[in-house]
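lol forgot to send this yesterday, sorry. struct tokens for the thing we talked abt
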């Protein structure tokens, strides 16, 4: 039985306590399994925290189950500490407000308002993986755009199929939102909207070539780095925010 009074009051200190317990378990051993189980249950019930928890916390319900995983991940104590600390960094940074660039904050607000349960969840996961899981982050960048666009098409009662690729989905949404380049005569506007179209197509290409979404045969491709992931996620976030804000503005404006 865990005495709540013996645990830190703040969430961030509890997160750091879990990190320390896992590091102890991965090095010299830990007898704090009951506390780990208690904290894990608490964090799993918090939607915002759960989205940023390390994958091994989501997977392993006890320190006994965690040990074979971390033992096989790295042979030395130092490497294990680094793996665990790096995995907790996005969550700690998010809680401390250190991991959000200004564009991240704008996107967080827009996507939270639009669809907190689905769209905002994908964005949160993409942010958390930029550094530690670039391939996964790139996959989620495209998933974010697909999710936003489908949500908008649903709102507008426009049909699409599961076979529609990202460029086709974006074409449908952009026309419905009056964002297609050929719907405008002003050259600067056409150029900007054309660039957005190219950006959407580029994210799809980057995802196909560098992400973890497909099996890779033949020569191994270049593995994406955190900067590739940041490019994909930030670009997807900017486009998603632009689409959401345009859709919400048009939805709130009275019909002519």
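and heres what i got for the seq, position by position
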């Amino acid at each position: 039985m865990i005495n709540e009074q013996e645990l830190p009051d703040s969430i961030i200190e509890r997160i750091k306590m879990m990190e320390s317990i896992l590091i102890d378990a991965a090095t010299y051993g830990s007898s704090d399994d009951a506390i780990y189980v208690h904290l894990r249950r608490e964090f799993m019930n918090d939607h915002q925290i759960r989205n940023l928890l390390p994958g091994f916390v989501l997977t392993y319900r006890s320190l006994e189950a965690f040990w074979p995983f971390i033992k096989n991940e790295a042979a030395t104590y130092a490497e294990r500490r680094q793996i665990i600390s790096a995995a907790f960094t996005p969550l700690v940074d998010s809680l401390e407000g250190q991991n959000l660039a200004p564009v991240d904050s704008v996107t967080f607000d827009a996507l939270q308002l639009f669809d907190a349960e689905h769209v905002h969840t994908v964005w949160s996961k993409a942010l958390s993986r930029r550094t530690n899981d670039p391939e996964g982050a790139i996959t989620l960048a495209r998933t974010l755009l697909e999710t936003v666009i489908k949500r908008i098409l649903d709102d507008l009662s426009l049909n699409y199929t599961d076979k529609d690729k990202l460029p086709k989905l974006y074409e449908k949404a952009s026309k419905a939102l009056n964002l297609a380049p050929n719907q405008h005569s002003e050259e600067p506007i056409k150029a900007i909207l054309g660039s957005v179209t190219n950006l959407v197509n580029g994210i799809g290409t980057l995802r196909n070539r560098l992400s973890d979404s497909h099996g890779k045969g033949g020569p191994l491709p270049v593995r994406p780095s955190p900067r590739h992931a940041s490019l994909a996620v930030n670009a997807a976030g900017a486009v998603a925010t632009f689409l959401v804000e345009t859709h919400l503005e048009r939805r709130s404006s009275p019909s002519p």
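The longest helix spans residues 226-252. anyway ping me if u want another try
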